């Protein structure tokens, strides 16, 4: 616990803690608000949250139930260590490996496994300044427009915060950048959608035809406009502008099979 | 009949095709035995270790078609170690050496090596048919040999095999002169396919009726293939994802409309829901639909699709369809005879699930239902009784409750009464799989009522030896009994040793049977092979990868429990290819 409380002291975590709804009333004023939090309360809340998230209560109950129910019928002659101790019993449920392989990939944590599942192309979506990532199934969308709409909905919660009084909060990891944005930025939405392709390069979303995009996209990153300058393509471009651009690219690619810039 | 010359009797026998019937007529008298055996062309061996290949050839010299089964059924669920056996190679060698005119080989759960495939392709000039189901041990190199050398090949049907991909481009090896294909199924192959070669092959095969492709075949390749083969009756789709606004998709829709003969649809190994409407035009003709690999289609899309399929007789689907979806099936598919509902998430809690409600709905709507495989989260006695009343025609009834010892959630009672109703009502029941909380009562019912039962699968059920004894005493037609994790012990095993000679096989794992009892049984019944399989020193992974075998002997303590026992009647004696972890007593 001591080690964990050390971690809690960083600004990252406190900001995170705010937006997880534990302190909804504080909103953007987390900076000011953090001093209102006794660390004890903070830790308790966080500890509670962690317990809820990480406790495998559900599965352990199942496991207990299963061993209770099967104990009378299952012979105990075999050394228990040799039996699989997990809740899964060998060979149960009786599905053949071809059927199992469909779903066995689903709980895997790496992206390649996700992409291998029939019908789904799950990629991680990160947004600069957001505390956690999301995942989207690219195959659920038919074109760039649908994807950008979905992304917008998904990430709106990060940009509007929880009722902050001084406008939108976009950056949650850096206090000074936060203040800069609040004070200096003229555009509300200052982000560029980029993606990492199969070769590991960071590309601007919208350059290639949709089908090619979903086959080569490994992850998405909603980059801050200022960083996007590094891609050498765009200066500052607002989120709304980027949506319009995506739509344009989309219509171009459908017509010509390529994008003209 | 004895006054007719042999040729006449032979002609009459030609009309008798089922193996069981032919076996029966061969028992009538010596001359019928002789005539029958010299004229039998299709030979079915349910257990490859029950007889030696030489004896088969000796008795049936006119053999043209050989069907063999190898591993026990529970091998499908990883209960049988990797190297247990079931090799087909000795059979091929024997057949090749004796120069029989073998045309067809059908194998299930056997180990097939590339050498076997190469030997097949080079030994039998009139070879036309290779059907491999749940086999393993071969690679695409073996397929290359078959494609290249079997010039009269009509059927290459690979169903759910484990095939290593060696990038052999095997499809390219069908010679240009090969135009005789009727069935081509390579849906289980994991590797890439030369799409152009496939398209050319289809284009020059005017008799092609069944084509099931693998995941590597894209939608636009499918479109080209279908335009070459509008006569297809059975189509297995590979990848079914494309931009629905594209020209390719538009062409596909038009091509599909031309395929008026398709009555069976399967595959969809990769699919996007928004592409499904392309197949609506063929749905009204479909009698068979298999969507059990099509993960990712939401229930709403499945329901829309089902509404178009009024003539379905066979439906294999994932449980994502939900109870509501099954209600739609019940109201739309009045001709349904076979239903299989597979779990989309066998190890998870499952949000979209099916329960007893879906099955009950089906039973009200689909009165012709005779075959069921149903994975669900719960079942009640009341539901089973209703189903039994509505559908007395079940021939195969396999229920799998994902929590194997779950009681009736309404009454907390075991499911004895429910299954009892099933066996009482379905007088023609041949195959039954049980699950849920069950006592010895269910076995009493089975012994009393299941007169036609041939195969029974038991898991986590029963309270004492009496359960198994009821079944052995009562089910006169029982051929296969497989039991796991149930409290049946020596008294049950030894209650009626003679019974096992009337059966094909018995499997018991994680039961209460001791080594001493197995030895006693083996001593008493020399016509049985009683195999003790002990892979407990191996972890499951090692077992699957052929890890270090442990020698199993009969020298253990007689009182020790046997983890896995497999016994079967045989004329061939103990097998000589048993691995170290198998001991035949």
UniProtKB/TrEMBL annotation, chain A:
Q: Does the keyword Transcription regulation apply?
A: yes
Predominant location? nucleus
GO BP field: auxin-activated signaling pathway; regulation of DNA-templated transcription
* Pfam families, per the entry: AUX_IAA
Which UniProt keywords are given for this protein, alphabetically ordered? Auxin signaling pathway, Nucleus, Repressor, Transcription, Transcription regulation
PB1 domain boundaries:
120-225
Task: Outline the segment boundaries, as ranges, of region: Disordered.
Answer: 54-88
Keyword Methyltransferase part of the UniProt annotation: no
Report the InterPro entries cross-referenced here. AUX/IAA_dom, AUX_IAA, PB1-like
Indicate where this protein resides in the cell: Nucleus
Q: Which GO terms describe its cellular component?
A: nucleus
Protein family (similarity comment): Belongs to the Aux/IAA family.
Q: How does it assemble?
A: Homodimers and heterodimers.
- General function of this protein: Aux/IAA proteins are short-lived transcriptional factors that function as repressors of early auxin response genes at low auxin concentrations.
| The protein, known as | Auxin-responsive protein
- The record lists the organism as Trapa natans (Water chestnut)
TrEMBL record, chain B:
Q: In which pathway does it act?
A: Protein modification; protein ubiquitination
The protein's GO terms of the molecular function aspect are: auxin binding
Compartment(s) where it occurs, according to its Swiss-Prot or TrEMBL record: Nucleus
- Nucleus as UniProt keyword: yes
* F-box domain sequence ranges: 1-35
Superkingdom of the organism of origin: Eukaryota
Q: Which InterPro entries match?
A: COI1_F-box, F-box_dom, Leu-rich_rpt_Cys-con_subtyp, LRR_dom_sf, Transp_inhibit
User: What's an example GO BP annotation here?
Assistant: auxin-activated signaling pathway
Per the record's keyword annotation, is Calcium included, yes or no? no
Q: Name one GO cellular component term.
A: nucleus
> What keywords is this UniProt entry annotated with?
Auxin signaling pathway, Developmental protein, Nucleus, Ubl conjugation pathway
Main subcellular location of this protein, as a coarse class:
nucleus
UniProt-listed SMART domains: FBOX, LRR_CC
The name under which this protein is listed is: F-box domain-containing protein
Its source organism is Trapa natans (Water chestnut)
């Amino acid at each position: 616990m001591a080690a964990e409380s050390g971690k809690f002291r960083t600004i990252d975590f406190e900001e995170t803690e705010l937006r997880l709804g534990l302190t909804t009333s504080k909103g953007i004023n987390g900076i000011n608000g953090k001093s209102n939090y006794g660390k004890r309360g903070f830790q308790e809340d966080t500890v509670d949250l962690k317990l809820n998230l990480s406790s495998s209560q559900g599965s352990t109950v199942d496991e207990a139930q299963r061993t209770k129910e099967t104990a009378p019928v299952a012979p105990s002659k075999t050394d228990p260590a040799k039996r699989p101790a997990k809740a899964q019993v060998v060979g149960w449920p009786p599905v053949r490996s071809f059927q199992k392989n469909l779903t066995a990939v689903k709980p895997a944590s790496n992206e390649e496994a996700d992409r291998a599942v029939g019908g789904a192309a799950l990629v991680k979506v990160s947004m600069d300044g957001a505390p956690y990532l999301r995942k989207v199934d690219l195959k659920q969308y038919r074109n760039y427009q649908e994807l950008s709409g979905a992304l917008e909905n998904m990430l709106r919660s990060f940009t509007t915060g929880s009722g902050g009084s001084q406008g939108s909060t976009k950056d949650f990891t850096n206090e000074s950048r936060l203040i800069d944005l609040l004070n200096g930025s003229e555009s509300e939405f200052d982000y560029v959608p980029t993606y990492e392709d199969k070769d590991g390069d960071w590309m601007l979303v919208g350059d290639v035809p949709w089908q090619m995009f979903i086959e080569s996209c490994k992850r998405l990153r909603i980059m801050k406009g200022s960083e996007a300058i590094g891609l050498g393509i765009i200066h500052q471009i607002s989120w709304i502008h980027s949506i319009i651009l995506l739509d344009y690219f989309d219509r171009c690619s459908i017509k010509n099979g390529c994008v003209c810039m | 009949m004895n006054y007719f010359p042999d040729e006449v009797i032979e002609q009459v026998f030609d009309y008798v095709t089922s193996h069981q019937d032919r076996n029966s007529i061969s028992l009538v008298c010596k001359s019928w035995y002789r005539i029958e055996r010299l004229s039998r062309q299709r030979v079915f061996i349910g257990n490859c270790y029950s007889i030696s290949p030489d004896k088969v050839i000796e008795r049936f010299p006119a053999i043209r078609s050989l069907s063999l089964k190898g591993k026990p059924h529970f091998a499908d669920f990883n209960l049988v170690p990797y190297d247990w056996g079931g090799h087909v190679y000795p059979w091929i060698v024997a057949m090749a050496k004796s120069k029989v005119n073998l045309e067809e080989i059908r194998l299930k759960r056997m180990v097939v090596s590339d050498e076997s495939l190469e030997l097949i392709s080079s030994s039998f000039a009139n070879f036309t048919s290779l059907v491999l189901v749940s086999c393993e041990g071969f690679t695409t190199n073996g397929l290359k040999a078959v494609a290249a050398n079997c010039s009269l090949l009509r059927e290459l049907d690979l169903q759910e095999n484990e095939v290593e991909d060696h990038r052999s481009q095997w499809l390219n090896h069908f010679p240009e002169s090969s135009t005789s294909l009727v069935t081509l199924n390579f849906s289980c192959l994991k590797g890439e396919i030369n799409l152009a070669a496939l398209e050319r092959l289809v284009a020059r095969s005017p008799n092609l009726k069944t084509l099931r492709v693998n995941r590597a075949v894209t939608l636009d390749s499918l479109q080209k293939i279908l335009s070459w083969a509008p006569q297809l009756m059975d189509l297995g789709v590979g990848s079914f994802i494309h931009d629905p606004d594209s020209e390719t998709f538009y062409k596909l829709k038009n091509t599909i409309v031309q395929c008026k003969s398709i009555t069976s649809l399967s595959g969809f190994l990769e699919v996007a829901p928004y592409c499904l409407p392309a197949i609506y035009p063929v749905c009204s003709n479909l009698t068979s639909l298999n969507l059990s690999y099509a993960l990712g289609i939401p229930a709403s899309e499945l329901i829309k699709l089902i509404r178009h399929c009024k003539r379905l007789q066979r439906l294999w689907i994932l449980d994502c369809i939900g109870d509501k979806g099954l209600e739609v099936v019940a109201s739309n598919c009045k001709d349904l005879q076979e239903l299989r509902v597979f779990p989309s998430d066998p190890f998870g809690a499952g949000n979209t699930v099916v329960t007893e409600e879906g099955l009950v709905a089906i039973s009200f709507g689909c009165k012709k239902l005779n075959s069921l495989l149903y994975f669900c989260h719960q079942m009640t006695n009341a539901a089973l009784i209703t189903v039994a009343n509505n559908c007395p025609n079940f021939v195969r009834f396999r229920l799998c409750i994902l929590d194997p010892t779950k009681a009736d959630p309404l009454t907390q009672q075991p499911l004895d009464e429910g299954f009892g109703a099933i066996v009482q009502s379905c007088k023609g029941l041949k195959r039954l799989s049980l699950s849920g909380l069950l006592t010895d009562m269910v076995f009493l019912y089975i012994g009393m009522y299941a007169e036609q039962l041939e195969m029974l699968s038991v898991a986590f059920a029963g309270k004492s030896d009496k359960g198994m004894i009821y079944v052995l005493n009562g089910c006169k037609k029982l051929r296969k009994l497989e039991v796991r994790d149930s409290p049946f012990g020596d008294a049950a095993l030894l209650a009626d040793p003679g019974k096992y000679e009337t059966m094909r096989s018995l499997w018991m794992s994680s039961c209460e049977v001791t080594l001493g009892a197995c030895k006693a049984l083996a001593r008493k019944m020399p016509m049985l092979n009683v195999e003790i399989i002990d892979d407990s020193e191996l972890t499951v992974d090692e077992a699957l990868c052929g890890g270090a075998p442990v020698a199993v002997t009969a020298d253990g303590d007689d009182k020790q429990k046997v983890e896995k026992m497999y016994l079967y009647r045989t004329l061939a004696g103990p097998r000589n290819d048993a691995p170290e972890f198998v001991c035949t007593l």
